[in-house]
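Re: that backbone. Tokens:
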């Protein structure tokens, strides 16, 4: 297995934010953006913590960023060696995808700066940094400023109503109290040699005489303490600790890759993009936390650090197949937040569990009623994602069902999974309206968010029925079963028309028949919110009926896949990064292998090509795109390989794109590793081995 590094040379200020996302490191609980040590909050330096949230006044409640533990500024006389002020002779940065290690090298005539950082999984709340200065061709007298920057980058902050810095020797301790009165601290242990050290407000300052070709190393071990425990025992780290933890981290990552890696022979571009996508999954899956994975992963506070359907529909399947323990902890998050979902249902007058469209630690709704602002006027736009995107509850049941199917781990049902299912079933029954003997799910929003408050929405109704049927499948309670069966047998499902097409919602066909480019021309700016114009037309934001066909593929045949693909493809903007992987999968299943390939590449390169949407109206939506990363994995496994999961096993129906000579991957099914090898002619060999 060879996994190339992500590498960039040169420096362009315009790339700073993008590279911050691209070169992210994390361990599913902490994330540190791919920024440089001289940067500040202006360049969006951020140490993001998943599962910690705070609300400042009337702003959106969002995840917390901690102080930057590793700020370094180097000066020689009056010359600053910050890349923001001083153009280097050579600049290089890399991300070792195999080992989740960030590295940078910036060369000036007089000196070279190198740094690296990583966030181990083995030690949950630790980040390690190393910084090296080399004097190039003469002795140098340097001044170094090094320490903790408490001027934090925040979107809806400030989140720390009190900030205190304590300093003992080379240790700096930040103690913060959030607006929600949570105590969080950060203990930063620095290792460096210096004679006279001054300290001011989180920063050490000292002079350094560096001989020609001499090297000077600085280390930092930063520990985040989330429970306010001030007596926590933190080891005293040494230089040898750095090497030891780094070695263990490398081995850990190598083990993770063993199952997750996919070989796409003959296509280096696709291979690299897929490796990069899988990297993002690996730095997000942490079985020891039940805080789930936010839509922007650990790259920052965009989307409030909240968890969406992205996790259950895109990411959970990746982990179910490659690391079921992580999948289980993601599902546990939905069990733990059931209370919030019950409260939300009650608030809106429904029974059961109405999961939050944007969910945080409590499971209460974090999605604002005005989730988008008008780009020109700055005025908030009323959206109904929160109240009407009810498919989220069914998506969660879907993820539970697939997990059980693949792992045979029924204990998740006893641990609360069945309660989730029952409450979700009750919710859909209470949401529906009986009309002429049929239960209709009206006034909702499907994955296509441009058409709000529609009736008989295909994705939602099919998934609602699936959720209720899944609950019936697993439960014993006869009375409840009969009640659920009555609903399931009589729910109204949009039917296939004479051409095998499923109408996305009642009245969709009557919408103005224009295509994506027509709507684009109606916008005054590409960053305008598309919903305003698209809602009047057939143009949709993202896979909706197509997503339904992917998820419930057992219920439809190839003719239906093809008819709906042909119909909806020209109307789909792919305005969400969740769209293209769904189209890729269906394109593979109908034999459109070129489109399948293009859509896969689109999904896999979302964080590499710099072309993604950064604004929705006036709201910044940049960051990494884990659902799209997971989607590229799914495009290969469910699309190119045609994996179909069934209650009694699985089947493969491969359709390799022309550029790919062979495809090899592993997944875990029923506690056994399945080794799949697909040849150019779509013949394949499966071998099985013990875990
Ligand atoms: O969950 C998605 C949604 O489908 C489209 N807008 C962005 C959300 C978060 O990724």
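Recovered sequence:
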């Amino acid at each position: 297995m060879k996994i190339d590094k992500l590498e960039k040379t040169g420096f362009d200020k315009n790339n700073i934010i993008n590279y911050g996302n691209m070169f992210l490191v994390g361990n599913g609980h902490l994330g540190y953006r791919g920024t440089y040590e001289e940067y500040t909050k202006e360049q969006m330096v951020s140490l993001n913590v998943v599962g910690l949230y705070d609300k400042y006044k009337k702003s959106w409640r969002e995840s917390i960023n901690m102080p930057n533990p590793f700020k370094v500024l180097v000066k020689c006389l009056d010359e600053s060696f910050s890349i923001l002020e001083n153009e280097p002779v050579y600049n290089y940065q890399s991300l070792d995808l195999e080992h989740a290690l960030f590295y940078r090298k910036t060369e000036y005539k007089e000196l070279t700066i190198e740094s690296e950082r990583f966030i181990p999984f083995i030690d949950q709340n630790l980040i390690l940094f190393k910084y090296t200065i080399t004097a190039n061709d003469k002795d140098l007298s340097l001044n170094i400023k090094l320490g903790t920057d408490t001027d934090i980058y925040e979107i809806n902050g400030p989140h720390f109503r009190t900030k205190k810095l304590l300093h003992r020797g080379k240790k700096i301790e930040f103690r913060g109290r959030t607006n929600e009165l949570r105590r969080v601290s950060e203990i930063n242990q620095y290792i460096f040699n210096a004679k006279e050290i001054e300290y001011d407000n989180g920063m050490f300052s000292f002079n350094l005489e560096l001989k020609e070709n001499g090297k000077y190393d600085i280390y930092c071990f930063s520990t985040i303490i989330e429970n306010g425990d001030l007596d926590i025992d933190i080891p005293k780290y040494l230089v040898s600790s750095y090497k030891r933890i780094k070695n263990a981290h490398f081995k850990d990552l190598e083990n993770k890759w063993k199952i997750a890696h996919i070989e796409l022979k003959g296509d280096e571009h696709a291979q690299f993009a897929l490796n990069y996508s899988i990297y993002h999954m690996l730095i997000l899956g942490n079985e020891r936390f039940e805080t789930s994975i936010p839509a922007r992963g650990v790259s920052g506070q965009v989307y409030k650090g909240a968890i969406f359907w992205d996790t259950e529909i895109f990411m959970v399947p990746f982990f179910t197949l490659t690391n079921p323990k992580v999948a289980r902890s993601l599902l546990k998050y939905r069990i733990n937040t059931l209370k919030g979902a019950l409260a939300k249902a009650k608030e809106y007058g429904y029974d059961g569990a109405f999961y939050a469209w944007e969910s945080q630690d409590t499971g209460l709704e974090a999605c604002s009623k005005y989730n988008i602002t008008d780009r020109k006027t700055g005025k908030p736009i009323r959206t109904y994602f929160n109240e009407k995107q009810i498919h989220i509850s069914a998506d969660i049941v879907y993820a539970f069902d697939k997990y059980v199917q693949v792992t045979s781990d029924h204990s998740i049902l006893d641990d609360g999974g069945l309660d989730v299912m029952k409450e979700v079933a009750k919710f859909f029954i209470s949401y529906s309206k009986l009309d002429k003997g049929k239960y209709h799910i009206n006034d909702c929003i499907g994955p296509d968010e441009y058409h709000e408050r529609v009736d008989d929405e295909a994705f939602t109704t099919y998934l609602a029925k699936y959720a209720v049927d899944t609950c019936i499948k697993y439960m014993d309670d006869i009375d409840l079963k009969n009640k659920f069966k009555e609903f399931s047998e009589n729910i109204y499902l949009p039917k296939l028309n004479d051409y095998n097409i499923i109408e996305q919602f009642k009245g969709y066909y009557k919408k103005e028949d224009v295509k994506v480019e027509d709507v684009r021309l109606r916008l005054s700016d590409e960053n305008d919110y598309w919903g305003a114009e698209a809602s009047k037309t057939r143009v949709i934001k993202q896979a909706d009926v197509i997503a339904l066909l992917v998820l419930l593929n057992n219920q439809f045949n190839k003719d239906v896949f093809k008819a709906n693909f042909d119909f909806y493809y020209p109307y789909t903007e792919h305005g969400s990064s969740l769209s293209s992987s769904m189209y890729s999968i269906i394109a593979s299943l109908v034999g459109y292998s070129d489109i399948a390939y293009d859509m896969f590449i689109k999904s896999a390169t979302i964080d590499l090509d710099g072309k993604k949407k950064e604004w929705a109206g006036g709201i910044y939506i940049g960051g990494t795109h884990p659902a799209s990363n997971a989607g590229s994995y799914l495009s290969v496994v469910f699309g190119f390989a045609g994996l179909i999961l069934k209650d009694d096993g699985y089947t493969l129906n491969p359709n390799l794109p022309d550029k790919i000579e062979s495809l090899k991957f592993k997944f875990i099914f029923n506690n056994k590793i399945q080794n799949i090898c697909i040849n150019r002619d779509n013949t394949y060999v499966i071998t099985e081995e013990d875990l």
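DSSP finds 18 helices and 30 strands in the chain. The pocket of 5-hydroxymethyl-3,4-dihydroxypiperidine is lined by residues 295, 303, 308-310, 447, 449, 576, 578, 627 (CB under 6 Å).
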